Amino acid sequence: MASTDVGASRGPFAWLGELFSAGPAKPGDAYGAPGMGNSTSIAIATSIGLFLLWYLVTLPALGPMIKPLFLPSPGEVWGKFVSVSTEGYQDRTLWQHAQASLWRIFGAFFLAAVAGVPIGIAMATNRVMRGIFDPPIEFYRPLPPLGYLPLTVIWFGIGETQKLVLLFLAMFAPIVLNTRAGVRSVAIEQIHAAYSLGASRAQVLWHVILKGALPEILTGMRIGIGFGWTTLVAAELVATQEGLGAMIMSASEFLVTSVVIMGIVVIGIIAYCFDLFMRWLETKLVPWKGRV
To answer: Does the reported pTM lie above 0.85?
Structure first.
C-alpha cells in the first residue's frame, strides 16, 4: 500500500524526469553529472516521432498536407529504394552508386588523415612549420567547397583526381587544426615528467604527446569526414554519372523527388554508421576521455 502511495505521489509524468535525468551519481560524486545517462531510448523515440510526422503529412487521406512533388511518402521512397537497388538508376544500381561515393570519400579521408595528423603535430611543436602551414590553411578553411570547385577543375581536369582533391581539401583543415589543438592541450607537467625519467624526444612525442592528443585527433577525423559527406554532392557535380551525389543531382533536375530523398537517407545512414564506428573506436583507443 505504501509503495502505491509513493508511486501516486510522483505523478503520472514522473517517468519523463527519469528519462531525461543525468543518471545516478558515480561513487564519490554528490550529484549525477549533467549529460550522464543513456540517451538511446530518447534517440529511438525521436526517430519514430519524425517518421510518424513524415507519414502523416504525406498521407493521402489527409490531403496530403505536402504534395508528393515536394515530399514523397515513406512508401514511395521505399519503393524507389527497392527499384533502384534491383533495376538501377542511370544504368547503375544503388550499390554501384554507393560504392563509387564510398571509394571517393574514404580515399580522400585516408589521404587527409595521413597528411593532416603529422602536419598538425608539426604545427603544434615547431614554430617554423606553424608559420609555413598556418596562413594557407586558415585562408582556405572558411571558403565553401563550391567556391574553389572551378579551380580544381581547371587544375586537375574532370577525372577522379579532381574529386579526390576537392574532398581532401574539405577534410584536411579540420583534421590538422584538431590535431594541433590536441597536442597543445597536453599538460606540460606530463612532458617534463617524461623527460625527467630519461625519455628521449621521440619517446615523449610518441608516448606522451601523441597519446594525449589522440582524443582531439579522433574528433577532428569525425568532423573532417562530416565535411567530406557535405562536399560529396559538389564533388560529383562535374562529369560523372556514378555516385550518390551524382544520382541526387540528376534526379533533382528531372524532379524525381523520391530518388532525391532516398539518396539523402542512404548518405545519412552511411555517415551515421561511420560516426558510430568512430565513437566505438574512441572508447577502445582513448577510454580515459572525459574521465581525467
So the answer is: no
